[in-house]
Write a structure and sequence with these properties.
- GO terms for molecular function: hydrolase activity.
- This is Alpha/beta hydrolase.
- It comes from Streptomyces eurythermus.
- The protein is of the alpha/beta class.
- The chain contains eleven helices and eight strands.
- Strands 1-2-4-3-5-6-7-8 form an eight-stranded mixed β-sheet, with helices on both faces.
- The longest helix has 14 residues.
- The N terminus is likely disordered.
Length: about 290
């Protein structure tokens, strides 16, 4: 499946912009292993800002060397309000890297709906390491949740903890009305036009070949890296058999949280839940 950059989004490989001074956020384009420019933002987190006011207190923070890498859901991007909100909560516990998957926002290429996106996440994780962070936690939502699972399985030892929120366990699921609409969006020419012009998401027209490793088969390969699976009991996309399949596949290694009253992905993950996820990650990542 070809995934060359599309249009004016492929402007540069690394182009910092929007810096806010020492220790401030950095926005840049990363280059993936297959040559796709991925728009990314680094926020050093609250601990860095505290360092200017109280260097001794900040240097003793257990989360100062930790970075969260957020993998958004399908049709999201780095500047969507729900992605920025999640990043804002996590930055109180560590640094944060956000990015737009290929075909989303201002990143290049076209979305492969969870396949080649592993390369996008890999570029973001590598950037976090180059920025000097000793502990990296990936946090993925929906499509991004499946990507963080596959990334941890295919790149063992790359990250220090994995959090998957609202992820599918298996591919080609059409058991709910939202998933049937999503399949129309991805598989039909008119659906891809809606995606491009209505949702700012450029979707590849070719089928997967080969079919990527399903999340449920990826999960057993993640151990011993700590794993947290989070799912809402009112998720309209993937019912509870999906997280339960993932937890069972983990063989007792992964931790499962079923959240009462929660819907799907970033929109449904309130600040209190994101803060609990952050607390788990700070502890689990060592």
């Amino acid at each position: 499946m070809s995934n060359r950059p599309a249009g004016d989004v492929a402007r540069s490989t690394v182009r910092p912009k929007g810096e806010t001074g020492a220790g401030g956020p950095i926005r840049t384009f990363l280059r993936t292993a297959d040559g796709i420019p991925i728009e990314s933002v680094y926020d050093p987190g609250a601990a860095v800002y505290e360092a200017f006011a109280d260097p001794l207190a900040a240097s003793s923070s257990p989360s100062r060397d930790l970075v969260f890498v957020i993998a958004h859901g399908f049709t999201g991007d780095v500047d969507r309000p729900h992605v920025r909100r999640v990043a804002g909560v996590l930055r109180g516990h560590g640094a944060v890297v956000t990015f737009s998957f290929r075909g989303h926002g201002r990143s290049g290429g076209r979305s492969t709906v969870g396949d080649k996106e592993v390369l996008d996440l890999d570029a973001a994780v590598a950037w976090a390491r180059r920025l000097g962070h000793a502990r990296v936690v990936t946090v993925g939502f929906s499509m991004g949740g499946s990507v963080v699972l596959r990334h941890a399985a295919l790149r063992p030892g790359t990250v220090d903890a994995v959090v998957s929120v609202s992820a599918p366990a298996r591919w080609y699921y059409r058991g709910t009305a939202p998933m049937r609409r999503l399949h129309w969006l991805v598989t039909r020419p008119e659906g891809r036009l809606v995606g491009r012009y209505g949702l700012r998401t450029r979707i590849h027209h070719r089928d997967w070949d080969p079919v990527p490793l399903p999340p449920v088969r990826a999960v057993p390969r993640i151990a011993p890296t700590p794993l947290l699976i989070v799912h809402g009991d009112r998720d309209g996309y993937f019912p509870l058999d999906h997280p339960r399949m993932l937890a069972e596949a983990a063989g007792g290694h992964g931790e499962l949280w079923i959240e009462a009253g929660m819907g799907h992905a970033e929109h449904a993950a309130d600040d209190a839940l994101v803060a609990r996820i952050a607390d788990w990650a700070v502890s689990a990542a060592g």
